[in-house]
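Appendix B, Record 12. Input sequence as logged:
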Amino acid sequence: MTTQTHLIHSRRFLPLFVTQLLGAFNDNLFKNAMVLYVVYSVYQSEKAEGLFSAVASGVFILPFFVLSAISGQLADMRDKAQIIRIVKAAEIGIMIVGAAGLFLAWKGLLVTGLAIPLMLLALFGMGVHSTFFGPIKYAILPQHLHENEVLAGTGLVEAGTYIAILAGTIVAGWIPVEWAAAGVILTALIGYMVSRQVPPAPPFHAAEPLDYHFIRASITLVRNTAHDRRVFLAIMAISFFWTIGAVLFIQFPPLAKNVLTASKEVASLFLVIFSIGVAVGSLSVNALLKGTVSARFSPPSVILMGAFVAAFYFVCRQWVPHPENGLMDVNHFISQPLAIPLMLALLGIAVSGGMFVVPLYAFLTTFVHRSQTSRTIAANNIVNSGAMVLGSLIATGLSLAGVAIVNQLLLSAAMCLVSAWIAAQLVKAERAAL
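Logged structural output:
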């Protein structure tokens, strides 16, 4: 923890940390304000709400799949700090479009014809923003930090991301939509100003021509990254983790409304608990590993995560809805007999998930040459996004087929077992290398 405290006060780390924190906050302020408004104010059926939530997730994820190869090449061949500033400047324009959609929704003007398309366009833009920023926020760490600081820095970035998700989720669930419209523009402006303080991070070799053929570039990037078995297994394990996360985040708003008969503030509370839990898990695993990059805690962590998902499912199955009294606010929800077990199960999912994924990200930045780190993270993002799109499609298909949202939780629990098996193979490869 001393290393983490030291990093927070260092210019080598603090501007990057704050920049990514503000970006994650803005992502989630906008995305949750949009989804919660549409689910609670536009659509009136579980099927339509689940479908929209899945479509929104797919729109955000798609750029990772299409553009990650280009973003990885660019980040390894150009100054990473300069790219950060360009990306953060673009965020201002993207959020102006998104704010226009939120404003029209607030006014009730052309909600389905213009407001929702504008919001989805901005969500796609934020996906592009995150695609180009994502490889850098991890790949820049070995360049600015000492070797014994990388795991701590990765844990702080991951924890900071989920603290930002927490803050964005709280704000989106509790402020009016017109305030959210102003907030996303203001946050983008502050993020750009902070990004100008990130120290230079020049490339380790001369610039090479970029391959703009995204299919060929993506295949080449993943193939070149997969030659190291440990890195390949880490990418696969992370991909299953984010597939699980994508499915859960798709399910939370319609599950809160239709299964638990709870208000949008309760749906926001679920995401808050999830974010706190991942942040706690991210910091805890660094303390357990004492700064050493190792996957040995990942298999038991994700098995525990699956057990908590199953517990969450069983509590939801036993939940007694109260539709005759309208949607429950937070105080009414917490007073229900099963509310505490439900929230503890959700917290357990998140803590164990954070402990699972942080060492795997550290693997990706420490077991390849520094000149390849951005492309390694980009390859990870390609596989992750493909897995998350698949998860979104499965969730969409299950919703269209009439499978209840609560029963879809079992899919997430089953995927945890696959992640545990992959993580166990990674531990074996790690021990073999030693």
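The longest helix spans residues 46-77.
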